[in-house]
Amino acid sequence: MTPGERETLDRLEDRTRTIKRGGILRRSNDQTGELFILRTGLMMTYVLLDDGSRQILRFHFPGDMLGMSGLVYPEAPETICAVAESVVCPFDRSALALLIETHPRLASMILAYAQIERVSLTDRLAALGRTSAKARVGALLLDWRSRLRAADKSIEDSFALSLTQEEVGDATGLTAVHVNRMLRQLEEEGLIAREGQRVTIRDERALTAATNYVDRYRRLDLGWLPQGR
């Protein structure tokens, strides 16, 4: 990036706010005047259904921009919650408008990021409707590893899954009991190994085939991005 682009991004992180695990950053139907960058920690976006159940839509990792779904609405369509203690950097939507005007390449990168999220969400929607419980849980494990690896290239087959089985269930449309059963089945089939919250992918090729998982964070085509200013 150019010095001007780096300075612009740095300004978005001038302020910080700490959110404890379980804390709500923004609730559904709250006003949407701010966006956020996740500096450290882990967060999730979810919706509550009429029967009181929760559907987790996506998990957020350091570097992610939060609240983008509320850009075109006066009220937030989703709730953003901390899965682990997190530090976020809030900034006003007007700062994003200025970024789009002065740095078209950064704006294009944000657009590209939004498309990655959209395609990943489409994959999850298809999985919820058309794949088995085992495939949904396995795909979540592979996706979690992919997201961690994007920030830390040293991560290979073993990683920390800092989610409860209830949270895994809310992301995959399963009960916690069913999640536990599927994790044990994946272990018994030699696809994964578990020790506490640590998961090891033992047979990545077989697990990928069994889950129809596609890593949407690899093989990106960004050659069309405009020149920096």
Could you explain how this protein is built, in words?
This protein has 229 residues and is of the alpha+beta class. It folds into two domains: 3-104, Jelly Rolls; 124-211, Winged helix-like DNA-binding domain superfamily/Winged helix DNA-binding domain (Arc Repressor Mutant, subunit A). 41% of the residues lie in helices and 24% in strands. It has seven helices and nine strands. It has helices at 3-12, 93-102, 104-130, 133-151, 165-172, 176-188, 204-211, and strands at residues 17-19, 24-26, 34-48, 54-60, 65-66, 79-92, 158-160, 192-195, 198-201. Strands 1, 2, 3, 4, 5 and 6 form a six-stranded antiparallel beta sheet that branches. A three-stranded antiparallel beta sheet has the order 7-9-8. A hairpin with a 5-residue loop joins β3 (34-48) and β4 (54-60). The radius of gyration is 18 Å and the shape is globular. The termini are close together.
